[in-house]
Amino acid sequence: MMETEYLKRCFGNCLAQALAEVAKIQPSDPIEYLAHWLYHYRKTAKAKEKERQEKIQLQQEYDNSLEETKMAEMLKQEEYEIQQKYERCHQADSSTQRLLKALLTSDNNTSQIHLLLSCTQEGIFSFLKRPVSDLVSGKQY
Predict the structure, then answer these.
(1) Which of 92, 114, 104 is nearest to 137 (CA)?
(2) What is the SS3 assignment for 89?
(3) Does residue 15 surpass a pLDDT of 80?
(4) Looking at the 3D structure of the chain, how many domains does it have?
(5) What tens digit of pLDDT does each residue of 66-87 get?
(6) What is the CA angle 83-88-118, rounded to 5?
(7) Count of other CB atoms within 10 angstroms of residue 100
(8) Residue 86: its pLDDT value, please?
């Protein structure tokens, strides 16, 4: 019984196919025919397994490439968003500077104060740290 299990495990269906082929063809030297048939079967099976492994590797490389492309796109988008945020902050700082200069040189400040309060806190604080003489003269930093 153990021999049967061993043969099934090692040869699987190929030995049965080989013996069926020998019975069908009935070659003059069945042992040599069987040996060649088994050798060809093994060579073909190895080639199929190698091809299967290569396909798996190619699929993994393709998946990795897609992931890298996706990551590069995300980084590019993040870089773009950072640039846009920087430009908006820079524009807000410039607007805040113009508004504060106008406030310091104007008599009617009420509407301008409301506009100033709607500006970014960070821009206001960084601008307010500058000397008043620079604000009035319009000196850029």
Answers:
(1) 104
(2) helix
(3) yes
(4) 1
(5) 999 999 999 999 999 888 887 7
(6) 155
(7) 21
(8) 79
Closest CA to 33 of 46, 48, 49, 20: 20
Name, in order, each residue with C-beta under 8 angstroms of 141's C-beta and a sequence gap of 6 or more. 130, 134
Contact of 93 with 126, CB cutoff 8 Å: yes
Could you tell me the residue range of the domain that residue 102 belongs to?
2-137
> Which tokens in the block code for residue 122?
């960070």
Structure tokens at 34: 């069987």
Query: Can you tell me the distance from the alpha carbon of 89 to that of 124, in angstroms, rounded to the nearest whole number?
Result: 11
**96 contacts 124 by C-beta, under 8 angstroms:** yes
Place of tokens 């269906």: 13
- How far are the Cα atoms of 12, 26, 82 from residue 22, in angstroms, in the given order? 17, 5, 74
- For the entire predicted model, the pTM comes to 0.47
C-alpha closest to that of 1 among 19, 14, 13, 9:
9
**Distance, CA of 132 to chain centre:** 51
